[in-house]
Write the structure tokens for this entry.
Amino acid sequence: MAQPEPELQIACTKPHGALARMLIDLGIRVVAVVEDEGNVDRYVLSKRVAVERRTGNSFVRGILEKTLFTSAVYLREHFEVPVLIVEGEVNYEYGGMNPQAVRGALSSMLLLYGVHVLATPNAEETAAVIAMVARQEQVGLPEISLIPKRKAADLPDRQRRVIEMLPGSGMTLARTLLQHFGSVQRIVNATEDELLALRGIGPKTAREMTRVLTAEYDAVDTERDLEDAVVEDHSLLFPQPVELVDRQHYLYADEEGRQFLDLVFMDVAANEVLIVELKRGKLTHNHQDQLVRYLDNAHRSKVIGGLLKQGMELRGVLATVEECDLKPRRRNVSVTIVDREAAIEVLKRRRAGR
């Protein structure tokens, strides 16, 4: 069961404005941030990303009043990724502004101040862009395949495309390999010496091809992979003996959908119920807030609520394979970095046992 997306949070200087209401309608929590440099329309998405919004007219006014440049300095000095959104059409007649001056101000944002400039046609698109940047910054970028997508013409074309992805290969060498061995499977099963026998394949290419085709897959690709590894070997998370109570444990339903806990353990010796939330990427405060919500609602689970009524304590564990410096905000929350190589070895053993 897919996990619901963690709640996004944006701090802005106009939390009661129309754009803030649009963000709230998109399911984002909006909080106020106090600025001391004037009537700016700014959205802080994280410690490193902030977006300043200016309509076409306010952009021109910012040039005339110089506030555009003071804001750019502030953004550059306080945020690693400063962004300026220019919304709607720029009215060059506003204030008698020369179009070249407007274009110069736009280019200076990028070249002199290091501010990324985006253009949107209206407030709805501005809200959508800010929401997308916040989601990618706070939750993570979706993985993008680097393999160009095109429709294969026929079966031979599909076969060539598979072999083209091997190290040192391309269309010509793929054809040579397929003509020599006769099938993709025979190429996969070929030895390094057999590959070396072909013209155009040197020792390095043959060695790399063989390594790619025969090496054991070493990766933790998804949260489900990490969950499988922890279920297989509890010691990845806990040095002490624990008992698995449930995985993907249904907790409650709200406006965002059904809420599930990744793993629930019981530490009999410590008299604790352990709620585990797993993440493959770097941990964020939003992840910790998600776990805290689960802890606050754990009594709504019949199983967990029953254990709590028996006098057991409740503790949350936030875990990932990525290094991070997130500090727990609650005494009953701990942050654990799972040894990636150890998790991979568990997954290998699990594959071998199937």
Remarks:
- The mean pLDDT is 89.
- Residues 190 and 210 are 8 Å apart (CA to CA).
- The longest strand covers residues 243-254.
